[in-house]
Design goal:
With about 80 residues, the protein is mainly alpha-helical. It has one domain. The protein contains 4 helices and no strands. The radius of gyration is 14 Å and the shape is flat.
Length: about 80
Amino acid sequence: MFTLEQLANSPRREFSTAHATAHILNWRFGSNIPHPGQISAEPIGLPRKTYADYTREFEYVPENLIMASVAADFK
C-alpha cells in the first residue's frame, strides 16, 4: 500500500499506478501523480452496473489497448 505522496514521487514516475488509476486519484484527491501521456481519462459519473454498460458509449480498439499498455505512441 502506498500513500498519494509516495505515488507522486515514485521512481517509477508515470508507471507508479495502473492505467487510469493516477487520473482517478488526481481527480478525487487533488494529487499530482504522473501518468502516461498516451492515456486520457475524465469523470463520467458513478460506476455502472456492468461492463457492457460502458461499451455502448466507447470504442475499444484492441491494438490501441495493447499500445497503451506499453506506453507506445498511437499511429
